[in-house]
Design brief:
heterodimer; A: alpha/beta; Rossmann fold; 2 domains; six-stranded mixed β-sheet; four-stranded antiparallel β-sheet; about 40% helix; B: mainly alpha; MetI-like fold; about 0% strand; flat
Chain lengths: ~280, ~280
Amino acid sequence: MTTKINIESAGKVFADGKRDIVALQDINLTIGSNEFVTFVGASGCGKSTLLRSIGGLETLTSGSIKVDGVAINGPGVGRAMVFQHYSLYPWLTVIGNIKFSRLLQVNREGITSSDVEAASGRADALLDLMGLTHVRDAYPNQLSGGMQQRVAIARALLPRPQILLMDEPFGALDAQTREVMHDMILHVSKLEKTTIVFVTHDVEEAIYLGQRVVVMAPRPGRIDSIYPVYLPAQRDQDMKLSPEFLQQKKEILTRIRETAGMRTDLELLEKMTRQAAATT
Amino acid sequence: MPANNYSLPLHRKIFESWCAFWVIRGYLSRYAYLMFALAGMLLPLAAWWWLAGSGMMDKVFMPGPVDVLARTYNWFTRDHLFNDIWISTYRVVVGFALSAVLAIPLGLLIGTYRPVQALLEPLTDFIRYMPAVAFIPLVMLWVGIDESSKIAIIFIGTFFQMVLMVAEDVRRVPITQIEAAQTMGAARGEIVSLVIFQSAKPALLDTLRITMGWAWTYLVVAELVAANSGLGYSILKAQRFMQTDKIFAGIILIGLIGLAIDQLFRMLHRKSFPWLYKK
């Protein structure tokens, strides 16, 4: 597997007036081409900040992120991003949203009419892949949350990005819809050969989708541990019930709790109760 | 309460429909809505009619609806009503359009670029609190008493508020919409024109609708002080001659024109932004 993304001692400090907050500290990670890597961690561990840094939406205060050996500098066409919500353009129809990137100068330079035709074909193919053909001319607010995320993914995929960055994309969806979306995104990863970096708070989702699960720890935000997933490449929902899966889920959950400074949910609850009592 | 009330006696049916009206944020049929709206308009009218006819107040101070209608007709046939309506509408529209043409780009810049915000927002906020009416003497000295002075007062009254409201509309564009465009490789200008402006458009039209109401307020102020034509001027003149019915007529006319323009804006909103009205 060739290297796609190379994160070298990446650091990010937010200056917060009084004191600095270390969002990312000395992150080193290599992500291979067409790899599916998932990030989990307690809140404040910097997983979203790291993802946004790869996307070029945040600038590092130290270190670098390289894609194909070239240090990134701001957002770029090859790195598409899918957000949790509110990223679709409500004034455009489904097809209008998917084709949005065609309006942009970067995609209009030096193109021929056959390119335009190919792009139209591509949009139709994505509509089909995402099961959106029947809502082609609908507006986003007429669609369910799951459908809206399909549109967002199709829109991100249109210019054939080599990297797809996903920031808790299914976090707002119900459990059934999420399962469907999981199999869909695995299919996309295989079909499009896209490298996918996926941030989630759901450990089960992280294992089911990822070839590696990266656990991050808070204060300062850092990589704590990396768990290779030994499930077969072709995943199916039944695997979630296998002893290996459950064992790994338990391991990772325990590790996340430890990094957050508590071993069990009960301990967390006690801590919160103490805090609440102290403030009243 | 049963799910349907077909089997109930009539008085129970009426009682239960009545109760259904008072569900918090409940459903109201189009027909019932229309009835309530009509009642809301007609009840005050009836109360006015009754009060004027009861003899409790002197007719000089409280003319009835019939007197006001008669006066409006009289104004129309003998006193150039349409001229007054036309000149007032002209002043409002020009002053308002001038405000909008400058406020929208400026507000767009303030809401988009932080340095522009720092440069202009505190200043605008400060000027906004200066009463526009207090500028009238200055405007008369600087611009004179012709049409431009009325337009200038409407401009002063609406522009600064409008800039701040436009900036706020622009700031309310979800950051993820902007970031999505950035990750698709949009240039800065493209983000402003293809995302921020498009996304803020419905809110902008609402802002224009609201500030249009203020423009009418300042029109009357301007005409009360420095004019010899227009609805506001006619109201002032009617006061000198104790024509309360004409004062009533002028006020109601302005209200009606305002209502008509408001409805026009709402219609434009529905026509221009179909996605907001589809479910």
